[in-house]
């Protein structure tokens, strides 16, 4: 009993000492983040988690862990890539769409890449992405500092040559190109078809209420698509929408409208090799048969199954095409054959700007060799 009483003061002193140590630790090492509201992933890995949560939490069975705190000294800053990461600087985000908070890893399974739009990192960036439309013709908004020897400059453009201004001073300026074209260094098409995974649900053709549809926001009577439409409507009814026809279609209404049409006129505004845009991929994804006008059929078949679309070149005249569409309209068994490819393939679109940045960064990470584009203007505009 006496021994117990004598040890009490020592225990109290030790407890007070530990309390002080804990208090000091808490003050100088306080938690800096708590992802209380990071939801479980449902669509794709990490997709529903804010980047802040992705950068600062652990993942448990593809779900963002809650109540995870991070000690300040070990917390990585998103804007400060590790020494092993490849850093890509986006000089001007295409059309002002800033998506630097997105992650290359969970969208495209690209690891070891960091994106930034902080121009203060110019001298350390391994590459810089430039969007063609945002470059001034006199290059007045381009970098003025000397380019580091290791740095790659990437030219990006998703518009066709007909809709892109030729800028003579761009020759001998870039190391790499990224565009929809297959002969680009980094090819990023407007969409892709890929094999369906085993757990994909069975595709069902949406209920059809309309025959042939077309949405146009940029009407030009000199375009080939406008001329063909004028001929086609003489032989079959085409329901038109869009600002050009004073029938505005909001982003929210677009999916329901297109999926309700049996056929959609996927007519490109200009005809160039590989220039196959969302006008094709969106109807395909929404369960509508696209009727295409653009490069030759063989070019389309480089990207999508041959039985997934109807090409205007398959018919000698617009009248013959109209007759074929009427036959399909009246014979459901013939119509559904245009969806047979859905048993094997799925369609996805492109993350405009972000995907070009991620894939450019990945290309630079994997290819450190010297490369230059000597005559960009001849290559693209011919």
Write the layout of secondary structure elements.
Elements: H1 2-28, H2 51-56, E1 59-60, E2 63-64, E3 86-90, H3 104-108, E4 113-116, E5 127-131, E6 152-157, E7 176-179, E8 186-187, E9 191-195, E10 210-215, H4 224-232, E11 239-241, H5 254-259, E12 261-267, H6 278-286, E13 289-293, H7 297-300, E14 310-311, H8 318-330, H9 332-335, E15 345-349, H10 354-366, H11 376-381
Parallel strand pairs: 3-4, 3-5, 5-6, 6-7, 7-8, 10-11, 10-12, 12-13, 13-14
Antiparallel strand pairs: 1-2, 9-15
Helix pairs in contact: 4-8
How would you describe this protein?
The chain is 27% helix and 16% strand. It has 382 residues and is an alpha/beta fold. The protein has three domains: 29-76, no CATH class; 86-188 and 353-381, no CATH class; 197-349, Rossmann fold, CATH 3.40.50.11660. A six-stranded parallel sheet has the order 4-3-5-6-7-8, with helices on one face. A five-stranded parallel sheet has the order 11-10-12-13-14. It is globular. The termini are far apart.
């Amino acid at each position: 009993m006496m021994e117990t009483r004598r040890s009490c003061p020592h225990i109290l002193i030790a407890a007070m000492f530990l309390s002080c140590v804990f208090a000091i630790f808490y003050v100088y090492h306080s938690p800096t983040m708590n992802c209380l509201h990071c939801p479980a992933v449902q669509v794709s890995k990490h997709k529903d988690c804010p980047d802040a949560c992705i950068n600062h939490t652990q993942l448990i069975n593809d779900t963002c862990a809650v109540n995870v705190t991070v000690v300040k000294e070990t917390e990585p800053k998103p804007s400060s890539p590790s020494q092993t990461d490849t850093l890509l600087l986006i000089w001007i985000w295409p059309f002002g769409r800033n998506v630097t908070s997105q992650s290359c890893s969970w969208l495209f399974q690209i690891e070891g890449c960091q994106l930034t739009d902080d121009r203060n990192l110019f001298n350390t960036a391994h590459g810089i992405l430039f969007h063609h439309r945002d470059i001034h013709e006199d290059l007045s908004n381009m970098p003025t500092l000397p380019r580091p020897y290791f740095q790659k400059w990437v030219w990006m453009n998703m518009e066709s040559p007909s809709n892109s201004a030729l800028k003579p001073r761009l020759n001998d300026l870039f190391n790499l190109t990224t565009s929809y074209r297959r002969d680009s260094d980094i090819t990023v098409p407007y969409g892709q078809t890929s094999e369906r995974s085993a757990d994909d649900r069975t595709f069902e053709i949406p209920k059809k209420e309309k025959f042939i549809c077309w949405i146009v926001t940029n009407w030009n009577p000199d375009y080939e698509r406008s001329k063909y439409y004028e001929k086609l409507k003489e032989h079959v009814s085409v329901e038109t929408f869009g600002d050009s026809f004073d029938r505005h279609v909001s982003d929210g209404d677009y999916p329901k409208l297109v999926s309700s049409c049996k056929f959609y006129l996927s007519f490109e505004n200009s005809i160039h090799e590989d220039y196959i845009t969302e006008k094709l991929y969106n109807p395909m994804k929404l369960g509508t048969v696209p009727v295409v006008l653009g490069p030759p059929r063989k070019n389309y078949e480089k990207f999508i199954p041959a039985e997934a679309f109807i090409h205007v070149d398959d018919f000698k005249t617009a009248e013959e095409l109209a007759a074929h569409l009427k036959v399909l309209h009246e014979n459901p068994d013939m119509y559904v054959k245009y969806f047979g490819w859905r048993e094997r393939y799925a369609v996805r679109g492109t993350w405009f700007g972000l995907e070009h940045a991620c894939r450019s960064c990945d290309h630079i990470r994997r290819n450190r060799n010297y490369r230059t584009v000597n005559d960009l203007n001849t290559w693209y505009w011919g």
